[in-house]
Amino acid sequence: MAVRTLTPLSPPAALGYAMPAEWEPHAATWLAWPHHASDWPGKLDTIRWVYAEIVRKLAPGERVRLLVPTAAAARQARRYLERAGANLRRVEFLLCPTDRAWTRDAGPLFVRRGRDRALAIVHFHFNGWARYRNWRRDRRVPEFAARRLRLPLFRARVQGRPFVLEGGGIEVNGRGTLLATEECWLDRRVQVRNPGLGRADYEAAFRDYLGAHHVLWLPRGLAGDDTHGHIDDLARFVNPRTLVMVRETRRGDPNHRALAANWERVPELRLEDGSRPEVVPLPLPAPLYFDGQRLPASYANFYIANAAVLVPTFNDPNDRVALGILGELFHNRPVVGIHAVDLVLGLGTLHCLTQQQPA
Fold first, then answer.
1. Which band of pLDDT confidence, cut at 50, 70 and 90, is reported for residue 292?
2. pLDDT over 60 (residue 223)
3. pLDDT above 90 for 62
4. Which of 57, 240, 210 is nearest to 120 (CA)?
5. Mind listing the pLDDT tens digit for each residue in 105-120?
6. Neighbours of 268 (CB within 10 A)
7. CA 237/CA 330 separation, integer angstroms
8. In total, how many domains does the chain have?
9. For the chain, where are the alpha helices, taking DSSP H only?
10. CATH code for the domain in which residue 69 is found
11. The domain containing residue 69 runs over which residues?
12. Considering the entire predicted model, what is its pTM?
């Protein structure tokens, strides 16, 4: 079936579409089975067991759509999931070659129409974070998803050019407010996704393609983040009026000054209705390194699924603190820790790997 591509003259928001909040009900979570060995040097087998645990926790509440590059990979994934006790009846194995496994950034980004709750997918033309060369198969994933689900596909364009955006670089409250960092999208020298575009251009694109008419900008991202400032390691909405934001109290840590700059913006933050959000501090684990490289370990990279909130943990005393804070904020589903010391070797964890499909 051919993908139904809607004209750029009618962006999603003009037709009543907007991106729902992550805590709203899901029909499914999309994942891509890990196969790119250099993402997790010497740890790929371990990572597959972590994936099996993620799927085991997701499946009680929703379907899992798992992208696999080959039929052999599907058989392999099935063996791991079966041995881990995951409910295979809730898992679809979808043959779709990918370069890597970061579904949050390259996978289908869904929007929903208000009047009838119809879904569509926005194609944001992934380009490897303007950093890596292996992205061409990943860029085709939204088209694959649109064909598979028989959904309209909007191809995002700004000033006549394909517009690049990654799901980990935005955070929405489902009411019209979007969070992002200036470091990720507005830096004109490092990892420039959309050369020549400025703040007003991005805000117009967020409005037109995601239905987000109000944008909150934070200055800086985490040390060790190869995306150059994704918001999903920094600040996350937990409900329409409350967000958690990481804070580093150790003054000698490279994150201390950058995150302090983010907190200095808090008094200025206003939601779409002009009210102040409640901002809850979230700690960071002690610094983690691999081969001398700082890793972007953050409890903010949690994923809100139907049956649970999955939170990365790092064998750190702050694991318990972070789980307690999030447990107090999410009253309608359990907060579950997923061991992520090996997972973060790939420079991302749970939120980076997942993409929700709204119900």
1. very high
2. yes
3. yes
4. 210
5. 999 999 999 989 999 9
6. 9
7. 11
8. 1
9. 44-58, 71-84, 103-106, 136-139, 141-149, 182-185, 199-210, 254-264, 318-329, 350-353
10. 3.75.10.10
11. 5-358
12. 0.96
